[in-house]
Design goal:
Blueprint lengths: L14 E3 L11 E3 L26 E2 L11 H13 L9 H15 L8 E4 L2 H12 L5 E4 L6 H8 L3 E4 L3 E3 L2 E3 L2 H11 L3 E5 L11 H13 L3 E5 L20 H4 L2 E5 L2 H4 L7 E4 L3 H13 L7 H13 L1 H25 L4 E3 L6 E5 L7 H11 L2 E2 L1 E2 L10 E5 L4 H16 L2
Helix pairs in contact: 1-10, 2-10, 3-4, 3-9, 5-6, 11-13
Amino acid sequence: MVSHVGAAFPHSFFLVFSKAAPCEGKVKMNYNFDRVIDRRNTDSVKYMVVPGMQPGTLPLWVADMDFPAPECVTRALVEKSRHGIFGYSRSGEDYFQALYHWYDRRFGWKVKEEWLIQTPGVVNAVNIALQAFTREGDHVIIQEPVYYPFAGSIRQSGRQVVVSQLSYDDGHYTMDFQDFEKKILDNQVKLYILCNPHNPIGRVWTKEELTQVGEICLRHGVTVVSDEIHQDFVYPGHRHQVFADISPALAEISVTCTAPSKTFNLAGLQISNIFIPNERLRTQYMEEMRRRGYTPPGIMGIVACRAAYTGGEDWLEALKVYLKGNIDFVRGYLASRLPMIRLVEPEGTYLIWLDCASLGMPGEDLDKFILKKARLWLDGGTMFGAGGDGFQRINIACPRSVLEKALDQLYEAVQGL
């Protein structure tokens, strides 16, 4: 066995499944995503109180969900806790088999055990890749507006950020391939950080789009770090394409970053699964991990990931139905009560992108208005880089009653303008 550790419109929604749910064994399973759980005073980053925050402020910012993990996960963690020994750990063959069957069944991607490396998270994985595949002063390209730790990680590592801004037209985003290739040539770019599905705009890039951007990278010797952490949240009419699975050539230049954290609300357990088919790149990556003194993953992350991928699929499918209902609710609410705010139609993720340009406020003023007047803690668009001004990102992975309250507060604030 190969080591994986741096070396080797209903307002109320209550869904009942008639078939057996793996999380509960051979019984009928009820999933109630409408239940509101108080997360205050639980050491939650999402619900921390910051200076100047108004009473009644709703936190819908950071990408964790207000739903408990599937019962199969909590049961596995409780059983491990009762064992009572939490020493150094290493995942086994059953862990890899859980990953293999998940990716094969959902995406048709057949991973190999030797490709797998575990890290504490995808941001950590991106930072390792920056150190492993580039040198100080090298240029790294991203497509803004995009997940803001990408630019932060590039700058903090002494590399240079190159931005190929996504094109926004009539509520839809596309890649500017001509600009992308020109920026690579002009700056001798060494590394590309791809976000698919894209955070915050919600695009699920098509195979044709990914093929075109991948061919540009192949022509110019650019390594691709593909953040696919939101791959399990893709809505009807769209399909997630694993970048590395498009062709053997693209697999050879790819580092694919995945995790159960977004899918099953496990971010605090700090485990991600990184796949690197190219042996040379994989060796460079592991050498960088050793330089950092990285130790094996925690046992609870291993236990939770294995349990989620073997028993949590029915829960996930029910959750996606609920989230689709939340998107429909937001769309309808904006159309009827807040038509000056536009929903950028999400193809994936549970983070939706709101076009607030018609409110006529520059970024900082808009952020203050949302926080102080609407009493909502969202992620302001400017933090996502070029093209983010005038937008807000909102996390809809919450009970619908909470989402409705948030929109009501936004409506009241806008009415007061």
